[in-house]
Design goal:
It is built from nine helices and no strands. The two termini are about 15 Å apart. By secondary structure, it is mainly α. Helix 3 crosses helix 5 and helix 4 packs antiparallel against helix 5.
C-alpha cells in the first residue's frame, strides 16, 4: 500500500523512497517484539532502554541549566541533550507507561522499597516532560494510555487510586509549570494560525491530513 501510494505523489522519487524506508523500519518492529518476547534476554533489552532513558532524564536537567553540555549546539532546544524534544518525549512516555504495572504489582506484593524506587523513576520521567519540554502528542496520549492500562491490568480500587493520582499530578503541575501551559496553548494557536489566517502549522497540518484522509 505504501509503494502504491507513491504512484500518485508529485514529490521527487528521492523523497518517495525515503518515505518507504521509514515504513520499512516500522515493519521491523513486530519481528523484534516477537523475537524478544520469547528470548531469555528480552527483559535485558527493557532494562537497558529504561536505564538509558533514566540517564537521558538526568542529562536533560543538566542541559537545562548548562546548555553547553548539549551535543546538539545548532538549533539547540530547551533541555535536549541529543536528538529532539519529540523523540525524547516519546521515549519518556514509553518508560512512564511501562513502569505503571510493575509499581502497582510491587506494592501489592509488599515490596515497598522497590516500588518506591520505581515510582521515583516514574516521577522523574513525568516531571521532565511537565517542567522541561514535552511534545503535544505525548501530552495527549500519556494520560489516556495510563488510564487504559490501569483499568485493564489493575483491580478496580487500585485503578481508581492510580487515575486519581494522575489527575492530581496533572492539576498541580498545570499551576506550577509555565512550560506545560505554553505547550497546551500551542494547540489553540496552531488551530487559529491554520484555519483563521490560512497559514501552515504543526497541528494545522495534522488536521488537514485527517480531513483529506477522511
Amino acid at each position: 500500500l505504501a509503494v502504491a501510494g507513491t504512484l500518485w505523489s508529485d514529490a521527487p522519487w528521492e523523497e518517495r523512497n525515503y518515505a518507504i524506508g521509514q515504513l520499512a523500519k516500522l515493519l521491523v518492529l513486530p519481528a523484534l517484539v516477537y523475537h524478544f518476547e520469547r528470548s531469555a534476554r528480552g527483559m535485558l533489552v527493557f532494562y537497558a532502554f529504561l536505564i538509558s532513558c533514566a540517564l537521558m532524564t538526568l542529562m536533560s536537567w543538566l542541559v537545562l541549566f548548562y546548555p553547553a553540555l548539549a551535543l546538539k549546539q545548532f538549533n539547540a532546544e530547551r533541555g535536549i541533550f541529543v536528538k529532539n524534544y519529540i523523540d525524547q518525549s516519546q521515549e519518556f512516555t514509553l518508560c512512564a507507561l511501562a513502569l505503571v504495572f510493575p509499581i502497582a504489582t510491587l506494592f501489592r506484593n509488599g515490596r515497598k522499597a522497590q516500588a518506591i524506587a520505581l515510582a521515583a523513576l516514574w516521577l522523574g520521567f513525568v516531571a521532565n516532560m511537565l517542567f522541561i519540554v514535552v511534545s503535544r502528542t505525548a501530552l495527549v496520549t500519556l494520560p489516556i494510555l495510563i488510564a487504559l492500562l490501569t483499568l485493564l491490568r489493575l483491580r478496580w480500587r487500585a485503578a481508581l487510586l492510580a487515575i486519581v493520582a494522575v489527575i492530581l499530578v496533572a492539576v498541580t503541575t498545570w499551576f506550577a509549570s509555565p512550560q506545560l501551559r505554553a505547550t497546551v496553548g500551542k494547540f489553540r494557536a496552531d488551530y487559529e494560525r491554520t484555519w483563521v489566517r490560512n497559514d501552515i502549522s504543526g497541528m494545522g497540518s495534522r488536521l488537514e491530513y485527517w480531513r483529506k484522509s477522511l
